[in-house]
Amino acid sequence: MNEPVESTTPSFEAATPALCRLELGSELRKLRMDSAMTAAEVCRILSWAGSKLTRLETADNGVVEPADVIALCQIYSASAEKQHVLTGYATVTKTKKDWWQSPDVRDVIAPGFKAYLGLEATAEKLGNYESEYVPGLLQTEAYIRTIHERAHAGLPDDQIERLVAVRTTRQEILHREANPLEFTAIISEAVLRRKVGSAMVMKEQLLHIADLASSHRHVKVQVVPFDLGAHPGMNGPFTVLKFGVLALKPIVYLENLGGAGVSRREADVKKYEAAFGDLQALAPGYQESLSMIHTASKEF
Fold this sequence. Notes:
Elements: H1 17-34, H2 39-46, H3 50-57, H4 66-75, H5 80-95, H6 111-122, E1 123-130, H7 141-151, H8 157-170, E2 182-188, H9 189-193, H10 199-215, E3 219-224, E4 238-243, E5 251-256, E6 259-263, H11 266-282, H12 286-297
Parallel strand pairs: 1-2, 2-3
Antiparallel strand pairs: 1-4, 4-5, 5-6
Helix pairs in contact: 1-5, 1-6, 2-3, 4-5, 7-8, 10-12
C-alpha cells in the first residue's frame, strides 16, 4: 500500500497580500535571472512598459493579475507546480485586503512600513532588539500617544489618534487565538529608565510589559543591563522575522530617521540572527529581567 505523499505546495490561507507580493516578486526575478533574460527583453515580448515588470519584481504594486504571472511563467518555462504557486500568490493580492489598507488609517502609514506590516502579520517568530524605547508590540496607548506627539509635533489630534490605532491594531497578533506570534523582545536598560510622558505613563508601561511577559507563554522579554558593558546590539535596533507559511526565508527589518527597509540577503540575516542569539545569551534570563522591570516601575 502506497503511503500518502505530502504536498509541498504552500497554503495561502494565512498569507497576507503584502507577504505574497514580496515572495512573488522575489520568485519572478529569480525565474528571469535563471532564464538569462533581461528585463528589457521580457517587456519587449509582452509589450509591457519597463516600469510594470520592475513593480512586479520589487513588490511595489497593490494587486497582481494572475494572467500577468502566467504570461511570465510561460516565457521563463516555469514548471506547472511553480506556476500554480505563483498564481496563488497573485490571487491573494486580488482577493484579500490587509487592515492597514483601510481608508481610516492607510494615509498615515508610510509605504515602507506598510510592507513591514504584511511581514509582521504573517511571521511565526519575531525577535526584536530595542535600545531607546519599548518595542511597538508592547507599548501602551498612552506611551504610543506620547511618542507620536513628540515625533509629529503640530499634527492634528485626529491624526495622532489614527497613528495610535495603527500600533494598537498591530498588537492583536500577540492575542489571536490561532497561532499567536512567538515574540522575543530584548531591550536595553535605558528603555526602562527613559521617562516617556508622565511618571504614571511610564509606570503603567513597565507593568504592562511585565504582565504580558508573565501571562503569555509566547511573549518573552529580556533586559540588557548597563553593567553588561559593550554588547552586540550597540549598532542599533533590529528585528528578525521568521515564517512558518509559504517558502519565505528569514528577513531582517531595520528602521531609522532616514527610512525603513528589509534585507533578505543570507549574509545579513545570519549576522543579525547571531547578534540576537548573543544578546539572548548575555542578558539576564526572563525571571531576572522581569524583576528588573518591576524594580524600575517602582521608581516612577
